[in-house]
Each structure stands twice: as structure tokens, then as C-alpha cells.
């Protein structure tokens, strides 16, 4: 084991530094964010920064890189009254999903360029990924500028959720492994997951419990 200081990291070449620092948080969520611009051109982009903000009200967030260059996802969200979608990447589509990270022109749709299909619900005016098994309709409610590097935390309200029927009959159960949801490490590593165990909700007066015990 050896130590890298901040100075060491800052002296690294761009790509190795990107891969190292992006891997530091460990495994991250793998999602495609779907948007559409004012001309009806659909946009799709892979994000590994979608995070849980709160459950009541239901809120998710994601980090947006500095807007010193065009950010089609951000521009489209602002132009479409805050609407966008979050779509879980699964093992059958991860290669096509990764292709959306390319720098496509604003007049080209990543759906078409990367071989994925769009789908719209009656409620959400932003495109979902038809192939996705877990789809979330979102509406931006806040944005926060991070002064340290000019990135932005985009906070969105969960407006609707499309999930598979639960194999165990639990109405609100979400089995990510059953859905094939993958995780991301660094900027280009994709991983399948395997549950180690499932532990119960912790109350300090209880002994260690597993669901169903």
C-alpha cells in the first residue's frame, strides 16, 4: 500500500487522474438520463452520480459538470419545464448505454445513434428508455452551484416510477439484481452485483435481525 498526496494527484495526466478520482467513492449507480430539447430532439446521457436526497418528499439528485461548455442534458431540462427521466442501466444494454457518453452534436439523438428506443408516459414529457426495466420520471426543483469546482447539484422530485412486478409478490419491493441493474466504477467499469445479505431496519434496542426472522 502506498499514499498519493493531493499534489501527486494534481500532477497526473488527465485520463489516469479521471479514472482514479472517479473510482474513489467505490461502486456508483449506473443510469441514463433522458431529455428532449425545444426542437423535439431527444438526448440521452450516462450518469454515475445519481444519489438519494430524501424519501419524504421523494427526491433524487445528480451532479452536473461545469456549464462552461454546452451541457445538453442541463439545457434540455431547463427548456422542458424541469422534466427529465432516470433509467437504470442493466446488463443487456450497458454497452449501448456507455456509447451515450460520446460528445454528440445537439441536433443528433443519442437514442438513435446508440441503438436505444425512447418511450413516453402520459404524465412525463421527457423520454424514457424503452429497454430500461426501472424508469423514473423526474422534475427539477433546485440546483446548487459547488463553488470549489463550478459543478452543480441538480435536485429533482420523483414524479412517477415504473418498476417490474415483484417476483415475491411484495407490491413495493424493488429487486435490483432481478432487474439486472449494474454498477459503475471509475468512468468506464461496469459491474454486476450479488447481494451478501439483507438486514433489518435498525432500532438500537433490538439485536441484529434479518428480514423474516
Features:
alpha+beta, seven-stranded antiparallel sheet, three-stranded antiparallel sheet, 31% strand
Describe the protein:
The protein is of the alpha+beta class. The protein contains six helices and twelve strands. It has helices spanning 6-10, 14-23, 72-79, 94-99, 110-113, 176-179, and strands spanning 28-29, 31-36, 42-47, 51-55, 58-64, 83-88, 118-119, 128-129, 135-146, 151-162, 183-185, 189-191. Strands 3-2-6-9-10-5-4 form a seven-stranded antiparallel β-sheet. A three-stranded antiparallel β-sheet has the order 1-11-12, with no helix packed on it. A two-stranded antiparallel ribbon has the order 7-8. The longest helix has 10 residues, at 14-23. The chain is globular and about 55 Å long.
Compose a concise summary of this entry.
With 213 residues, this protein is an alpha+beta fold. It is 17% helix and 31% strand.
Q: What Rg is obtained from the alpha carbons, in whole angstroms?
A: 19 Å
The major pleated sheet works out as: 7 strands, antiparallel
Give helix and strand order, one letter per element, not per position.
HHEEEEEHEHHEEEEHEE
Q: Count of helices?
A: 6
Mean pLDDT: 91
In helices, the fraction of residues equals 10-25%
The low-confidence runs, each spanning 5 or more residues with pLDDT under 50, are none
- Strand order, main sheet: write it out: 3-2-6-9-10-5-4
Roughly how many Å apart are the termini? 41 Å
Strand segment count: 12
* Structural category: alpha+beta
